[in-house]
Design brief:
single chain; alpha/beta; Rossmann fold; 7-stranded parallel β-sheet; 19 helices; 53% helix
């Protein structure tokens, strides 16, 4: 295919001009980043429709206001003004778990008449979600969205956001469809009919070799999209582990503690001291600003260039940048200990990764559970609510999921993205960055920890001096305690050996 480079001028943003876009999952991590990217880099885009449900007593319109209140939108609000952004976004009250998406007839007509591009990002990303809930949202919700897409009169692309970790029996995942673990239609019908308790009792048998409900239901949803490709223009995006922004619009921004950010905070606070993990292994990570830029470029190629042969895209990074699990933790501990300390550190950052489960269980008993019990007892005695034991229960539950991924290895072919890099010009490469050039790993992790300090932990910069002083105190506490413990062990071992020797002589 011959591609006109347009004299080095951007062709991606103009492709979105006056096109109406529907986004599900806009209140989520990836969804927020996608909305911000489109509003900032494609200002002439038509209306952005956001399918939003009421949640925790907040109406969809209030949740839209919460989205724009996020620090992620400060840059684009400064460029274009809040009123302009809100006027360009239309909230559609609905719920992907409900029949007909719980959309009113008027809103459905609006979507089917106007929308030409759909990004279906809504999903539960909880690995321990019950199978019934995961099927209803991840699989049946996708089916309902496909049904809606089939009614759209101007549809140019239905983009389904899957995951590169949904076909875990494939150690090298290619950009092609794979057979689902079961017939998605039959699974949907069975789950609709059975009570949740019954489904829970059958979950392990239904999942088979699949480690969790997330991977299982995303694989089923992919099969529905592949099936629909004969009827509608559809693509599948398979991002890997989506992590905080690299640079745009805020370095290190995130709104959750999933993935490596949670590990960095846990290790930096001195709470996580041991992990059962192949320390030399690595995961595939993708900064969220890279993910949404890639989605925009892929959309331009599919819609603007009419390149419908390429309809499965791997949004991954490990072919270029490999950071081991140990590398993540060690970098995080060094940054927190030496440059950007966190407040309220319980112990000086330390600990190691264990290659066997029994080593980890032993270390966790002494360095997680015993300290948690003792500290909670002290908190209770001083009239405070015990918290550390509950935190370690959550950590242990998270480790159950993490250990599967940390002790297995997958690689991903991303030939399509490599191809797209060859057909975008210099301006587009900057505006919609989809390569790893210029990424400095140490700088990136520093930005992640700094941003997590601000946006997740709500720890302001004026507390850093006190945090550094506290970190120095914890360093001495750590050294003194280790000296006493090891000294005591040496003393009692020596005493025991002396007694044995004395008894053998006399």
């Amino acid at each position: 295919m011959d591609i006109d480079m347009n004299g080095g001028r951007d062709r991606i943003a103009p492709m979105f001009k006056d096109r109406h876009v529907l986004i599900t999952g806009g209140t989520g991590f990836l969804g927020k980043a996608l909305i911000e990217k489109l509003l900032r880099c494609c200002p002439e885009i038509g209306q952005i429709y956001l399918l939003v449900r009421s949640k925790k007593g907040k109406l969809p319109r209030q949740r839209l206001e919460d989205i724009f209140a996020n620090p992620l939108f400060e840059t684009v609000k400064g460029l274009r003004g809040l009123d302009t952004l809100i006027s360009q976004c239309t909230v559609i009250s609905g719920d992907v778990t409900e029949p007909e998406l719980a959309i009113s007839p008027e809103d459905r007509q609006l979507i089917t008449e106007k929308v030409s591009i759909i990004y279906h990002c809504a999903a539960t990303i909880r690995f321990d979600e019950t199978l019934k809930k995961a099927v209803m949202l991840n699989t049946r919700g996708t089916k309902y969205m496909i049904d809606l897409a089939k009614q759209c009169k101007k549809l140019d692309m239905f983009g389904y956001v899957s995951t590169s970790y949904c076909h875990l029996n494939e150690k090298l995942l290619l950009e092609k469809p794979y057979p689902p673990p079961a017939d998605p239609h039959k699974v949907i019908k069975a789950v609709e009919w059975l009570e949740e308790g019954v489904v829970d009792g059958m979950t392990k048998k239904i999942l088979g070799d699949c480690p969790n409900t997330y991977a299982y239901t995303k694989a089923l949803a992919e099969a529905l999209v592949v099936e629909a490709m004969d009827e509608i223009p559809a693509v599948i995006f398979r991002p890997s582990i989506v992590i905080p922004t690299w640079r745009e619009p805020i370095p290190g921004w995130t709104d959750n503690i999933n993935g490596p950010v949670g590990l960095l905070i846990g290790a930096g606070k001195g709470v996580i001291r041991s992990m059962y993990c192949d320390s030399d292994g690595y995961g595939d990570y993708l900064p969220v600003d890279f993910a949404v830029s890639a989605m925009c470029v892929c959309t331009w190629n599919y819609v603007g260039n009419q390149d419908h042969k390429r309809n499965i895209y791997h949004l991954v990074s490990s072919a270029e940048i490999k950071v081991s699990w140990e590398g993540i933790i060690e970098r995080g501990k060094w940054i927190v200990a030496n440059k950007i300390p966190l407040n309220g550190v319980l112990w000086y950052p330390g600990g190691t990764m264990k290659r066997t489960r029994w080593e980890h269980n032993l270390a966790a008993f002494f360095f997680h559970w015993i300290p948690a019990f003792l500290i909670d007892c002290l908190l209770y005695c001083f009239g405070y609510k015990p918290i550390l034991w509950r935190i370690h229960q959550r950590i242990a539950k998270g480790f159950e999921v993490f250990e599967y991924y940390a002790n297995n290895q997958w690689d991903f072919d991303n030939a399509t993205i490599l191809y797209l890099r060859t057909i975008i010009n210099d301006e587009e490469k900057v505006k919609f960055k989809i390569d790893a050039g210029g990424v400095e790993i140490q700088e990136y992790f520093e930005n992640c920890i700094r941003a997590a300090r601000w946006y997740i932990l709500k720890e302001t910069d004026d507390t850093i001096p006190a945090a550094k002083r506290h970190m120095r105190v914890m360093w001495w506490v750590d050294k003194i305690c280790k000296t006493l413990i090891y000294g005591g062990l040496i003393y009692y071992i020596g005493k025991a050996l002396y007694s044995l020797l004395f008894a053998s002589v006399f």
